[in-house]
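Before we proceed, please read the two lines closing this message. Report back on whether the structure tokens fit the sequence:
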Amino acid sequence: MTARAAVAGLSPDALAGALEAFRRDGYAPLGKLVDDAFLAELRARADAIMLGEVVHQGLFFQHDSESGRYEDLELGEGWRGPSLDYRKIEKLEVDPVFRRLIERPAYEPIVRALIAGDVVIYRAVLFTKGPKGGTELPWHQDAGTFWGIDRDPFVQIWTALDDAPRDAGCLEFVPGTHLGGRATPLGGVVADEIAARGDAEARLIAVPAKAGDAILIHNHVWHRSRRSATGKPRRGFTVCYMTADTRCVRKKRKPREFTRVFSR
């Protein structure tokens, strides 16, 4: 096995079990699907992009808020200069290193088990929590009218680039909430009163992850992540896959062209 080769993918039985959990709970831990050598390359690439050592036109940057509160994030600021405290970086499908993770051979059978025909991606995003703790992300759904497409995608794979234990802001889910569809037409953040009615705090399940672990996530399941208290980076990369039949319906700008993946 070379340094860049994939670790073993899911067996047919493991895939069937993951799909059953995904349909029931809205998420399914997949175990380690990325080897250590590739993880080291991805972490180095993430740092190089945040520090401006690797530059791609069109990337979207959002810096952490100083308070760590989601409500205090500065919108529309984008690139603020070299920093390891960016909260997220989008459009990483243009980067050749992250593109290899998007089209990971171990991920293709998982995606194709859920999406028939040609596959495109809506987004490829690096979410980071730096040594200062990062920004808390509230309960939310990754869909809604503000996404500007004619149907909600429902398949994403999140990959831990670093260990993500509970105290580093691991992902937390409210199982089964995907079955109710969007909490609001707009989508995005689940309002506190809706989360309270859904008894989110009592029902939540924390899903710690080791570096290289992947989690299959339904876009409608309520999920969140808290700030990190470890003083170490906690980086996760998520890719939203969808059918190539999806169309952009936004009116203000030229319709988006979505990147095709797993081409044969």
Summary: Residues 12-261 form a domain with the Jelly Rolls fold (CATH 2.60.120.620).
